[in-house]
Design brief:
four-stranded antiparallel β-sheet, three-stranded antiparallel β-sheet, alpha+beta
Length: 355
């Protein structure tokens, strides 16, 4: 009975070897599965990160596109105001620096915003012309000189955001010669346009009101400024050579200051006068620059993107509402008459460092 026992033990040892091989195979499969799961996790996290970056990029692009669209809309609004106020031939425009309280001095006094463009009419409050016949003193006389007309209080409007419904009907009219601070100012002409010179920045700074509006998706803003490009030369500019170290230039300046006829010829013609005065004279300005701003805000009111644009516009002889022969506006002097057409001559987007 001993021999069968030995053989059974051998048979038992012989069957144990396959079980070890099966265990090794199962361990390898487990390691392989875990490795594949780790790789899939890495791929999954990579895809999620990529999708998150894509969503953020698309959201940023959407906000930037919305800001540019708002800037274009603001530009169209400003162009409409310019057409309404300065399209008719009967309007007068000038930079608000003309309201200087003391024109003798170099500083512009009494005007908070000298670069805002003011609009005046040649008609009084009753619709009558301010010009009357005066044959004894040259043929025409301006009644406003005798009636105590205040040019600062009688302007129709100033071409900046917030004054869209004129002085009489605007909810909060913003006058250039007012001492009140702007509620929400935004700079449209600053260091990027004027350079690093502190005095130039102080004199040329342009700020306007950022007006808030409510839309379907939240709050937005539309600030704009219309500048006058018709006034290029200032005849009151001091002589740059007055304090020059060059003896010839200093002598020339000394002679010019003591003699009003310096440089005049013995015989003057109209061409001689116009050649000197022409660049500084203009009946009215027909060329303007418009700077507008647009932004995009989220549902919490946080500004996510900003955009600035600039356009140069010019008044053409073509009327908006012509007669049958297309020579003059059909309703000259009427309230709804928009005069002659303004056209955009050039347009460009501005970077923040150009403002």
């Amino acid at each position: 009975m001993y021999t069968p026992v030995v053989m059974m033990a051998k048979q038992s040892n012989f069957r144990a070897a396959p079980s070890q091989r099966e265990g090794a195979g199962r361990g390898f499969a487990l390691v392989t599965t875990l490795t594949i799961m780790a790789l899939l996790s890495i791929v999954m996290f990579g895809v999620l990160s990529l999708s998150s970056v894509t969503v953020r990029s698309s959201s940023t692009a959407r906000y930037e596109l919305e800001a540019k669209e708002n800037a274009r809309l603001t530009l169209a609004l400003a162009l409409g105001e310019l057409q309404e106020f300065l399209g008719p031939d009967q309007r007068v425009s000038a930079p608000s620096a003309i309201l200087d309280a003391d024109p003798v001095t170099r500083e512009i006094e009494g005007v908070r915003h000298p670069h805002w463009v003011g609009i005046w009419s040649h008609l009084d409050d009753k619709g009558s012309s301010v010009w009357i016949r005066d044959d004894a003193h040259g043929g025409l006389m301006d009644r406003r000189d005798q009636e105590g007309w205040q040019r600062g209080q009688n302007s129709l409007s100033y071409l900046v955001s917030g004054n869209e419904r004129r002085r009489r009907s605007a909810k909060t009219f913003r006058a250039a010669n007012s001492g009140a601070d702007l509620l929400d100012p935004v700079t449209l002409v600053g260091r990027g346009s004027l350079g690093d010179h502190a005095e130039r920045q102080r004199r040329g700074l342009v700020e306007v009101e950022r007006v808030s509006v409510q839309g379907g998706t939240g709050e937005g803003h539309y600030p704009y400024w219309i500048g006058d490009l018709g006034t290029r030369a200032n005849i009151a500019t001091p002589d740059a050579h007055a304090d020059s170290g060059n003896p010839k230039l200093a002598a020339r300046s000394a002679l010019m200051s003591s003699s009003k006829a310096w440089g005049a010829s013995g015989y003057l013609t109209q061409g001689d006068l116009l050649q000197v005065l022409g660049p500084a004279l203009t009946a009215r300005s027909d060329t303007f620059v418009i700077r507008s701003y647009g932004d995009a805000v989220d549902k919490h009111g946080t500004i996510k993107a900003r955009a600035w644009c600039e356009a140069v516009v010019q008044r053409t002889p073509i009327p908006v509402n012509p007669t049958k022969v297309e020579l003059n506006p059909a309703d000259v002097g009427q309230e709804h008459e928009f005069g002659r057409r303004f056209t955009i001559q050039c347009f460009r987007w501005l970077n923040p460092d150009e403002i």
